[in-house]
Amino acid sequence: xxxxxxxxxxxxxxxxxxxFNNYQQLLETxxxxxxxxxxxxxxxxxxxxxxxxxxxxxxxxxxxxNIDDILTASLVEPEIDRAGANLMEENNVQWHTxxxxxxxxxxxxxxxxxxxxxxGYDGETVKIVTTRDYQHYYDSSVVIQQQxxxxxxxxxxxxxxxxxxxxxxxxxxxxxxxxNGFTFxxxxxxxxxxxxAYSGVAEDEQLISGMKGIEMAETEEEARAVWEELQEYxxxxxxxATKLGSYSHxxxxxxxVEGFVYSNGSIYWNVxxxx
Length: 275
Description:
- This protein is α+β, with helices and mostly antiparallel strands.
- The chain has helices at residues 2-9, 23-27, 55-64, 67-75, 109-119, 135-149, 162-168, 205-216, 220-238; strands spanning 14-15, 32-45, 81-82, 125-131, 154-160, 177-183, 241-253, 257-258, 261-262, 266-267, 272-273.
């Protein structure tokens, strides 16, 4: 609220990460409105411990999701989100692939209920942990809770401030799912939610082997082929997370600001004011 008021009053020249639901309001001003593609919004499952360590449970949750509704509720505007199963962005041509996309945005409650039954789910409490410090994480989590409850899951939403949440997820017994954002990476081997050293990510032999295969590949073509096969496996089998979509940060600049560049963060070199 302080950033929004400051950029509108002229106190600030640049305001960052403004609320998405102010987008249309800001377009009606003389300010420069710059949605800047920032990263992927991910529903991460705790594959190490608890209910979601069961592969069938993860696939049941994935099958239940109506991702269009989740993105509309959390990111609000089409200019701010980008749906898609690709785990590497389209402009990263070396790694971009749609492998496994048939498992994205299934919105299939009947399949979800069948998978729940196969998993032997018996009404246990499923904990989604979230924060209102990043409103789109919270808004996504609320819709996900509703969608999972519609297939018969008993879902509890626990809300924390961001520092508390980042500490809590280090305890594998404290949570089952969470929505989180991850900035774009240059290659798949640096993606945190695929790394078993990261909170809630179980060691998976095929995933680890695939990442080593990418690192040891002798050519770019060989490395890409390994990743394409690995992304297919991530979506159709292991499923440590469901990608919800790519999101933007909403930057707003005063009318006279020039030279601003966004690339996974603000770049202020050569930024100037014309007045």
